[in-house]
Amino acid sequence: MLEMLSYPFIIRALVVGTLVSLCSSLLGVNLVLKRYSMIGDGLSHVAFSAMAVATVMNWAPLSVAIPVVVAAAFLLLRLSSGGRLSGDSAIALLSTGALAVGIFIISMKSGVNTDINNYMFGSVLAINKSDVTLSVVLSLAVLALYVLFYNKIFAVTFDEPFAKATGIRADFYNMLIAVLTAVTIVLGMRMIGALLISSLIIFPAMSSMRLFKCFRNVVICSAAISVFCFLSGLMVSYEYSAPTGASVVIINIAVFAVFCAADFIRGKIGKTA
Predict the structure, then answer these.
(1) In whole angstroms, what is the distance from residue 22 CA to residue 197 CA?
(2) Residue 233's pLDDT is what?
(3) CA dihedral 169, 187, 258, 271 (to 10 degrees)
């Protein structure tokens, strides 16, 4: 562990990964409960396309991707809430279209394959000091907004019609969740990759829901699971020279299996008691 922490790129990955894991786990609970968990997959493809364009044009990838993905989140909610498309259809349309654009643009220019692979599959080496600064600032902003509007987000997640009846601006808070999710996905893509970033949103929430029913307990457990899985995955990645994103996801799968087994055993004990 001490040897691992002697490398600056590991320190950068540790800081960014921990903050992104916290953000994604908190937002993931709301997205899973609202049956909108695959929004992460759709927005990650949009982020990949934006980063591909930025790489080809020699622009700062994060600076380009963040506003583009936020705009995509607005469009996604507008399409689904307007009744023109169902949520899953809107996500499929946006994700496949964006991915196709990104691949087409990449094919038009040679010499950027390494950077694009980093975006697709993630790499701790791809994170530089400016990325760390931007990631820390935006991650703390996401966490602060989530805590500040926690009660409103809770109300919109569990009973949106009732929340609207009590005067809560449900559309605004749905949009806030989507925007915070978009920012989190872009920040995590450099390390986890576009193909795997949605797992940070889905797995911790699904694991914690196996054992807890109270929303607050699910959120706390999800955050703890997400940070634990990231730290474990980072250590496995360093020890075996494996991709960080894949290592984190595999740990998440193992934890989910353990929680499912614990839930099954608890059910058996409850029936025999």
Answers:
(1) 13
(2) 94
(3) 0
Give yes or no for a contact between 146 and 122, defined as CB atoms under 8 angstroms apart. no
pLDDT at 74: 86
The answer to whether the beta carbons of residues 69 and 242 sit under 8 Å apart is: no
SS3 readout for 233-255:
HHHHHHHHCCCHHHHHHHHHHHH
Q: Is 152 exposed, middle or buried (0-12, 13-18, 19+ CB in 10 A)?
A: middle
Give per-residue pLDDT as tens, 118-132: 777 778 777 888 889
Question: 253-268: b or e for each residue (b if 16 or more CB lie within 10 Å)?
Answer: eebbeebeeeeeeeee
**Pairwise pLDDT comparison (63 vs 15), residue with the higher score:** 15
H runs (alpha helix) in 108-169: 113-121, 129-148, 150-158, 160-165
- CB neighbours of residue 74 within 10 Å: 14
Residues 194, 22: Cα–Cα separation, whole Å? 18
Distance between CA atoms of 77 and 82, rounded to whole angstroms?
8
> Tokens 């614990």 sit at which residue?
262
